[in-house]
Amino acid sequence: SLAVLVPAAQAQTPAAAPAIDQNAIAALTRMGTYLRSLKAYQIDVAITDEDVLDDGQKIQSATHTNLLARMPNGIRVERSNDRLERLYLWDGKNASILARRMNYYATVPAPATISELIDVLDEQYGMDLPLVDLFLWGTPEGTPAKSKGAMVVGPSVVAGTTCDQYAFRQDEVDYQIWIQKGDFPLPRRIVITTKTDEARPQHTAAYNWNLAPSFNDAAFVLDPPTGALRVELAKITVK
After folding, report:
1. Is the separation of the CB atoms in 186 and 159 below 8 Å?
2. Alpha helix locations (H) across the chain?
3. What is the per-residue DSSP string for 47-111?
4. Phi and psi for 133 in degrees, rounded to 5?
């Protein structure tokens, strides 16, 4: 028999790891640093999510979210879609949630910092603060620390705003982000693709920013509607 020799150039080699462009990483870091420097801001966010049915068909749903942030100790989030209307409030002392359609609300003692609030909601109640990524960009808990690949896509325009587009890879998701050019590096659009589902459903968010919102302290404190029923916020039980 004749031995078959495979030329070195044709020999199979492990796939190269995705390249990480440090310019893309620096852009995320700069954006996160800038967001944490803001004393107050308000955002209107139009969100589209895709759900995948058992037969593979995708169903889209739309959510509107409005966030008002006062640093370091005030958050107000209103979130609504076809299925729910929620109001989330935090004033540095208490956190409250109001389910408007059911007219139920809950209030619990809360820590004094946003990072601690995020941890308490996750670890004790199994909840994510809406738009939580805005407070995590550039931190050890967020991106770019988890990035496996990063690239600069190039200039782009989002709703009339000049941006740079970037693409990143993580273990379970790919995502793209459009960051405003200039001295105000705000995220303007995000697309997240889930890789753990072969249908690759996407989450899309478009941001409209107001860096000079008008508000007072009462904006972060719940004033329950007439007839609202107070309920207990269930904690996670560890077996």
Report:
1. no
2. 22-37, 114-125
3. EEEEEE-TTS-EEEEEEEEEEEEETTTEEEEEEEESS-EEEEEE-SSEEEEEETTTTEEEEEE--
4. -60, -30
Residue type, 190: I
Dump pLDDT digits (tens) for 72-105: 899 999 999 999 999 999 999 999 999 999 999 9
150, 164 contact by CB (below 8 A): no
What pLDDT digit, counting tens, does each position of 163-203 carry?
A: 999 999 988 999 999 999 999 999 999 999 999 988 899 99
Number of C-beta neighbours around residue 139 at 10 A? 14
3-state SS assignment for residue 26: helix
Could you give the CA distance from residue 2 to residue 124 in angstroms, rounded to a whole number? 67
Closest CA to 153 of 47, 3, 27, 9: 27
Q: The whole model's pTM is what?
A: 0.85
Q: Measure the CA angle with vertex 25, ends 162 and 46; round to 5°.
A: 45
Burial class (CB in 10 A: 0-12, 13-18, 19+), 37: exposed
- Find out whether 102 and 86 touch, Cβ atoms under 8 Å: no
Closest residue by Cα to residue 103 from 232, 234, 230: 230
Q: For residue range 2-33, what is the model confidence (pLDDT) as tens digits?
A: 333 444 444 454 455 569 999 999 999 999 99
**Cβ atoms of residues 97 and 90 within 8 Å:** no
| Mean pLDDT, the chain, integer | 89
Count other Cβ atoms within 10 Å, centred on residue 239.
2
218 has pLDDT over 60: yes
pLDDT for res 6: 40
